[in-house]
Amino acid sequence: MVSNKKIKSIYLIAICGTGMASLAGLLQKSGYLVTGSDANIYPPMSTLLKSSGIDIKPGYQRKNITADIDQVIVGNAVSKDNSEVLAVQEKGIPYISFPEAIKKFYLKNQKSLVVTGTHGKTTTTALLSWVLHSAKRKPGFMVGGWMKNFDGNHAIPEGEFFVSEGDEYDTAFFDKGPKFLHYSPFASILTGIEFDHADIYRDLDHIKNSFRKFVNIIHPSGFLLAAFSDKNVQDVLADASCQVETYGFSSSADWVIGDYKFVSGKGYFTLSHQNVNVANFNLPMIGRHNIQNATSVAVMGLKLGLTTQEIQEGFHTFKGIKRRQEVLGVKNGVTVIDDFAHHPTAIQLTLEGIKEAYPGQRIWAIFEPRSATCKRKVFEDRLPKSFTPADLVIIADLFAPDKIDPKDRLNPELVVENINNDGGDAYFIPDTEALINKLITECRPKDVLLIMSSGGFSGIHQKLIARL
Length: 468
Fold this sequence. Notes:
Elements: E1 9-13, H1 18-29, E2 33-38, H2 45-51, E3 55-58, E4 71-74, H3 83-91, E5 95-97, H4 98-106, E6 111-116, H5 121-134, E7 140-147, E8 152-155, E9 161-166, E10 170-172, E11 175-178, E12 187-190, H6 204-216, E13 223-227, H7 231-236, E14 243-248, E15 255-263, E16 266-273, E17 276-283, H8 288-303, H9 308-316, E18 326-331, E19 334-339, H10 344-357, E20 363-367, H11 383-386, E21 392-395, H12 412-421, E22 426-428, H13 432-442, E23 448-452, H14 460-467
Parallel strand pairs: 1-2, 1-4, 2-3, 4-5, 6-9, 6-12, 7-9, 12-13, 13-14, 14-15, 19-23, 20-21, 20-23, 21-22
Antiparallel strand pairs: 7-8, 10-11, 15-16, 16-17, 18-19
Helix pairs in contact: 1-2, 1-4, 5-8, 5-9, 8-9, 13-14
């Protein structure tokens, strides 16, 4: 094994994945020569990498694997027969997975803070990172999204904390366990557990077992903060190896959110602990779900020694994340918002937050089924209800449907039919240009267009803004 000190050149296979892009930036700032390749190169991660001066080689080619590479990091998007992987093995170059690299290069001598759960990981990780930074704790962090406060998504630790977004997805072709088992957590936030990642998990119990393993490896002197109202979370807490405290809107939680209201772009709430008021907070973000995420951050901050004033200052100055309820533009009175939502629960919570933030305005939900799970029939029955808060719904065609067996594919036309049968107003428009034409033709001032996709959606956002 090559020691960290002897490693100079590092190559990342599948560099444009959100976590891999974060890692590439971290390694470059740590003084390593970083290059990599990917088959899917699109913003914001490709923009972030190129702006950092990191060379991205399109596609996977054996010639990219040269003898001067000291360490290869393999993303979970590639398989064992990938041409670059085969070249790495033939040349005998040491290779590890993305989460193994985080542990190897950044978690030694750090208090590892891991944010995990099916929904809200990116926002909560980003907010926790910013609150600690704002309070001058100088944390290292790795976030699966582009943080506007930093114009990036990572930082080398200068203090005692390293904040990670703990993903339950599998690690690599040579390690099928979840990524978060590599992060040696001192303390963690668990936002909720639902079935997802149907390409690697059999069912909900299979996912719960991964979370049981995770809560069991939290440091005994650390702690776990868990969403109280989530029954699936409650089912795994007995396996925790540390102190567990709950948070939420329920008065039965250890940390209780009260007096919530949304006024002038901010969510206001109180936080109490065991019937004692701790503080009043406000957050410049949309939706009750983000208030719950912020509460977990506030509680972790308090338990790590921050003052309520430091936490509120972090909340007050948080600028958000690209692709999370991000307003891209307002043209001729029409607001265009981009969001990453791709799970029925996330879709509904996002729409409820948008509805609350834009009262009396007409809300369009434009959705591209793109994730490995959402392209399957798994959520076919749940998706129609998730669009209930929207006034009008447009569902695009599945992205890369050929990767899914026809019998297992989501039927977007059936989803649209069921929305309409329930009294909604929905359309299936498979062609992106036809979709844009419908919006351009039918939009009116004060309409809000919420575009949801876990990918680039054929550049629909900027095309719309240009034509509105």
